[in-house]
Amino acid sequence: MTTLQAGPTAPEARPGLRGRLGRSRSLAVPALHVLFVAALLGLWQLASGRWIDPLLVASPSTIAQRLGDWLGDGTLWDNLRPTLVALLVGFVIGTILAFAVAVLFTEVPPLGRFFENYILALGAVPFVALAPLLIIWFGLGLEPKIVVAALTTFCSFFANAFTGLRETDPQLLELGRILHASQRQRLTKLRFWSAMPYLTSGVKQSLPRAVFAVIVIEFLASNKGLGYLITSSGNNLDMPGLFGAVIVLVVVTQGLLFLIRLAEKRLLFWQPQERR
Amino acid sequence: MTVRAPGQDQDQIKVRNEGVAAPLGRIVATAVEHTYDSGGRPVTALAETDLVVEPGEFVSLVGPSGSGKTTLLNILAGLLTPTRGQVSITGGATGGKVPVVGYMTQHDTLLAWRTTLQNVAFPLELYRVPKRDRLSRAAALLDRVGLAEFGGHFPHQLSGGMRQRASVARALIYGPPVLLLDEPFGALDGATRVALHRVLLDVCNELGTTVLLVTHDLAEAVSLSDRVLALAARPGRVLREYRIPRRAGQREVRDIYSAPELIALHNQLRETMFG
Question: Rounded to an integer, what distance in angstroms lies between the CA atom of residue A174 and that of residue A168?
Answer without folding.
Answer: 11
